[in-house]
Design goal:
By secondary structure, the protein is α+β, with helices and mostly antiparallel strands. Helices cover 26% and strands 24% of the residues. The chain contains 9 helices and 15 strands. The protein has helices spanning 5-22, 27-43, 50-54, 88-94, 196-217, 248-253, 285-295, 375-379, 383-398; strands spanning 63-65, 81-87, 101-110, 141-144, 147-151, 155-167, 170-181, 238-239, 264-267, 276-282, 312-319, 346-347, 353-360, 363-371, 400-404. The strands form 2 sheets. Strands 8, 9, 10, 11, 12, 13, 14 and 15 form an 8-stranded antiparallel β-sheet that branches. A 7-stranded antiparallel β-sheet has the order 1-2-3-7-6-5-4. A hairpin with a 2-residue loop joins strand 6 (155-167) and strand 7 (170-181). Helix 1 (5-22) packs antiparallel against helix 2 (27-43). The protein is globular, with a radius of gyration of 23 Å.
Length: 414
């Protein structure tokens, strides 16, 4: 049975003291634990449950926090905010000249305040093997349990509706909280993702943080406890013929057997509460190089697929408050990116990115598609029907109406 959140703080302190006393810890070690709690509370403004953070695998030894304008939470300064926690355990096992290492971040924000969301850019890498950050590619998965949440290879983010909240003098309609490790590949991880133990603690930490933030902002809603057993992430990409989640629609099209189209997918489980639902179609190395070889002499500007996942098509559906602040990627950072506006549809400025829109249960939805550079030179015209198949699947599954789709003239290669 779970202890109610209101009682957790006192219970955690008591259990912590009893435990350390029971195993014969010295006064110095007891002081170290209490000092660690104080450091976390100071850095995170009492929003992040210190006892849960101290239960994470890298949280051994001396705990400190970043002392700077950024890296500590001050709600009076507005949202979003984050706090950054260090430990000597992480430093010893991960390697650090200073003897400590940043291992945990607690972050909070209000949906619609701060930067919005954007889909992949056409020059992005979808696959991590051989990349600078990880040897594995793990598509994000929904948290489940009736919670709007996303599990990644570093942590958990949750969202909470907030009908009456106020932050920095501004109305809040929804808020979010994240509990995450700094890196996915560490001595404490399990093949590039948190262990089952840490995954559960990160989920609890995110939920408790969101509920505490809701209390501070005057929100009446609260999240339930997260599921007890959160599945490990499934490594991708996987064969398109086996798609059964957010990319099941693509399997049903039968296009994966054709050379022009993707033969692999990156997908997640479907969840009506997901504010960002993704399906990515990937051409495997053999498929991509076969396609390139067939067209290299025709198109001088086609880029060779020189790394895994270089040719892809990525699809997203953004929901609710998030859908009101979506921008398409722009290769020129000095230009204002195209806003994907609810109730409309179109294409990015000279970029292979498109959006459609719909309304589901009275809430706006934005549906996007991005084609990778090189691949878009070969496949743009053919992907009008693919994008439409994706939008048709999502809107039917979610019971959406008022669908707006880009004109056929928008599907041309530049």
């Amino acid at each position: 049975m779970r202890v109610p959140e209101r009682a957790r703080k006192s219970v955690n302190v008591l259990l912590c003291l009893v435990a350390v006393a029971g195993i014969g810890w010295s006064g110095k070690e007891i002081w170290q634990v209490l000092r660690g709690r104080q450091q976390i509370d100071e850095a995170c403004a009492g929003l992040v449950p210190a006892g849960r953070v101290l239960a994470l695998s890298p949280a051994g030894g001396t705990i400190t926090h970043r002392v700077a304008d950024e890296g500590t939470i001050e709600l009076d300064a507005g949202l979003p905010q984050d706090c950054e926690i260090f430990s000597t355990e992480a430093g010893e096992k991960g390697g650090s000249r200073s003897g400590e290492r940043w291992f945990f971040t607690g972050a909070v924000g209000a949906v619609g305040q701060g930067e919005g969301l954007s889909p992949e850019a056409s020059w992005d890498d979808l696959l991590d093997p051989g990349g600078p950050y990880s040897d594995h590619t793990y598509p994000d998965q929904p948290l489940g349990g009736g919670i709007a949440g996303i599990v990644t290879d570093t942590g958990v983010t949750v969202e909470l509706p907030c009908a009456k909240g106020v932050s920095d003098g501004r109305r809040v309609k929804a808020l979010w909280a994240r509990a995450s490790f700094l890196e996915s590949e560490t001595p404490f991880s399990d093949n590039g993702q948190p262990t089952a133990h840490d995954r559960g603690i990160l989920a609890e930490t995110a939920v408790i943080t969101a509920n505490r933030l809701a209390g501070r902002l005057g929100c009446t809603e609260r999240l339930p406890d997260p599921p007890d057993d959160i599945p490990a992430l499934v490594e991708g990409p996987t064969p398109a013929a086996e798609a059964e989640g957010t990319c099941a629609w693509y399997r049903r099209t039968g296009l994966a057997d054709r050379t022009l189209y993707a033969d692999q997918v990156l997908e997640s489980r479907t969840d009506p509460k997901a504010w960002d639902e993704r399906c990515a179609l990937v051409l495997g190395d053999t498929r991509a190089n076969t396609l390139y070889a067939a067209h290299a002499d025709e198109l001088d500007s086609v880029y060779r697929p020189d790394r895994p996942g270089r040719y892809f098509a990525a699809f997203h559906t953004y929901s609710g408050e998030n859908a009101k602040n979506i921008h398409l990627p722009n290769v020129d950072s000095h230009e204002t990116p195209v806003a994907a506006e609810p109730g409309r549809a179109g294409r990015g400025d000279d970029e292979p990115a498109w959006w459609a829109s719909s309304v589901c249960s009275g809430k706006p939805q934005i549906h996007t598609m991005t084609l990778s550079y090189g691949y878009e030179k070969l496949a743009t015209a053919a992907y009008e029907k693919v994008f439409r198949a994706y939008v048709d699947d999502v809107t039917a599954r979610r019971g959406c109406t008022d669908v707006k789709f880009p004109a056929t003239s928008a599907f041309h290669a530049d």
